[in-house]
Amino acid sequence: MAVRATLSRFPSDPDVQESCGLPWGVIVTPFAPADELGNPPAIGSDGDLLPRCENCWAYFNTHCELDQWSWSCILCGSLNGLTSRSIERYSHSQQACPEMCSSFIDLEIPVEGSGGEATLAMPVYVAAVDLSSSEEFLELIKSALLAALEALAPGSLFGIMTFSHKIGLYDIQGPIPVVKNVFIPPDSDGALPVDLEDAMPLLSFLAPVDEYKDRIAAALETLKPTTSWERTTAAGQGLDGILLGGRGFGVAMEALVKYLSSEYGNTFALARVFAFLSGPPDYGAGQLDTRRYGEQYASKGEDADLALLPEQTPFYKDLADVAVRSGVCVDIFAVTNEYTDLASLKFLSIESGGSLFLYSNTDDSTLPQDIYRMLIRPYAFGCILRLRTSSEFKPSHSYGHFFPDPQYENVQHVICCDSFATYAYDFEFSSNDGLSRHSDPPILQIAFQYSIMVPQEGPLNAQSESNNRPKYFVQRRLRIRTLQYTVAANINELYDNVDSESILSILVHKVILASLEQGVREGRMLLHDWLVILTAQYNDAYKLAQHEIGSVISSVDVTFTQCPQLQPLPRLVFALLRSPLLRFHEEGVHPDYRIYLQCLFSALEPTSLQRAIYPVLTSYSSPDKQAYPRHSLSRAALITSGSPIFFLDAFTDLIVYYSSTADPSLPFPPPQDCLLRSTINRLKQERSITPKLKFIRGGQDDAYLFESHLIEEQDVDGNGIPSIVGFVSFLEEVTRDVMEYMK
Questions:
Q1: How many Cβ atoms from other residues are within 10 Å of residue 569's Cβ?
Q2: Which H helix or E strand runs over 535?
Q3: Of 148, 652, 672, 712, which has the fewest CB atoms closer than 10 Å, so is most exposed?
C-alpha cells in the first residue's frame, strides 16, 4: 500500500490551508505490494482478533499507547480495554504480532459466512467477441485470446461468447466445437426468445483451460465476421430508411451477466468478462445514437465537449450495478477509429471493477500484450477501502473508480483492483481550531479489506480426473497502514514540503470532474485560475511582488525561484492544458479518446501520471552512456545539449530519437545489450499498459511523433490554432493575470 501526501507537513489551521493555495490530500495505491519506499507489510493471521477502538473503530497500531489491560487510540484518544485473548497475546510474544512490529500490516481474516471452512471457487473468464467486425479485427482478437490462455492459471474456467444480431455460445468440451445461437429480436427490449441457460448449461459453456486449451484455440480459429447481407437482413431498415447495423452488445452483455449470476457464490467468487468491440452498439437494447458526433455544435453556438462527454443512456450504468451484484467484472477493449460513444459505455467497465482500453487501429495495437500483462498481475476483489483520520481533520472528497458505501461515510467499495489501481482523497479541517504543533501529531489510518484466490495444495481426492484439477479457495485479508505526520510551522515550511506529482494527481481528478459536469472550457479555466491564485499567494507569502509608485505592481515571480518544490507546477499545468484531456473538440480531439484518457489518468499513480502529461526527455552520448537525465520539452533543449541520442518516455509511448547530426557510426537502433535498451525493457516491465516503442532517425524518418511531444514550442503541431501557445507565452499570460489578481 503506497501512500503519498500532497503536503508531507500538514497545514496548522483553515486560514493557512486557504492562504497556501495548494490541495491538501493523499494518493493511495492500496494493493501495491510495498509502500512508497519499497518496504513490504508485516504479514500475519488472526486479523479478526486485532483490537479496535470502541469510539471511532480505528485499529490498534504501533503508534498507540499500550498498558497491561488497556490501550489508548491514537486517532481519537479513547481508552479501550483489552480482551483476555489480546492480553495473553501481547504479554507473551509481542515480536510475533505484526501490529506490534510495524505500522504497515497485512493479516488474514475469516471469510464471512464460511463458518471457518475454506470457500472453494474457480477463477472464471469469458471472452465476448464482436462479429459485426472485420477479418483484421478478429485476427487481432484471436492473438489476444491466445496470449490470454497462456497467462491464465491452471484450473481456470474459460468461455467464448460471440455477439452480432445473434448471440453465439461455444461448447468446446466435446470432440468438435459446437456453437448454439440465440437470435436477438430487432425490436429487442433486452428479452431474448430463450434464456442462455436453456440454450446451453453454464457448466458446459465454461471449460477448464488446462484440459481444453487446444480446443479453445481451435474454436477461436472458427471465428468469422457476420456478412453485411446477414446483418442487413436481420436488422432491416432503420430510421429514415438508414440500414441499421447488427451489433447487439447491450442485449448480449445483459444476457451474459444474468447467465453467469446463477453460479456466483458456488462455482466462482468473481467472473471476469473481456468484451471486444469494433464499433458502437447499434442493435437492440443499449444501442447508441452516434449521430450526435456529427452535429455542427460551433454553428449552433453550443459547447461540443459539454454535449459529447455525458452518457446518452443510463443502460450501461444500470447494467454495471447488476454486474456487481452478480459478481461479474467487465473489461472493455474497443478497437475502432469510429465514434463509439465510450462516454456511455465506460460505466459498464469502470463501475464493475474493470478497465477501458481504446485502440485506434489493428496494425500496431498492443492489445495482446495488454491482456497478457493484465492477467499475470495479481488482483484483489470484493474490496472495501476505509480512511480514518484524527479528529481535527477529515476527508472532504474521494476520487477514483470505486463507489461509496450507501451507509457508512468514507467507506468505498472496489469490485476488482490490481497493484496499479490508485485512488485520491482531499482533506478539510473539522473545525477552525486546526492542528497544534504542540499536541498529538495528525494521524491517518487506511484499512483495505480484500479477497484473493489462493491455489489449494495437494489433490483433495484422487478418485476422479475432475477432482485432480487444481483447486482454489477464497482468502480474505485485511491490510492496514497507519501514518503519522507533522505540522508545518508556517506557510514557507508548507511550500518546502510539497509533492508536485501528488498535487498533479488531485488537479487531474478535479479538472476531469469539472469537464464532465460543466465542459472542457470550465475545466481549463479552473486549472488556469488555480495556478494564478497559487502564484499570487506564493508572491504574497515571500513578499516578492515589486510595487511602483502607489499600489501598481511592476513584477511578480511566476517561476517560484524561492521554492524548488513548487518549480515543476507551472510546467505541469501548462502540459495539462496542452494535453488531449483539456484541448477542445474543434482542435481535433476525438471524444472517445478524451473519455479513454479520463479513465486511464484517474487510475494512475502520481509518477506514471506525470510522465503521461509531461514526458521525461533524457539524452545519451552513446547507447551505453547517459548524458543528462532530464531536459525541458523544447527544440532549444535538443540543440543546446549537443547529445546525439534522445529518449522520450511519454508513458504510453517510448521514443528513441537520433538527431540529424548524430555520428553515423553510432549503432541504430540501439543494440539489445546496451544501457538504453535495458532502461527501455525495465520501463516496459513496470508499466500497467504496454507502451509503444518507436525508433526515429532525424533527417531521414518522419519525426512528427517525437516533435509533437516538444510542447514548450510555440504552435508545435503547426495547426495554427491560436489557443496553442508556447511555455514562455504562457508564463507571460500568467504574469499578467497574477498582477491583475494582486491589485
A1: 23
A2: helix 520-541
A3: 672
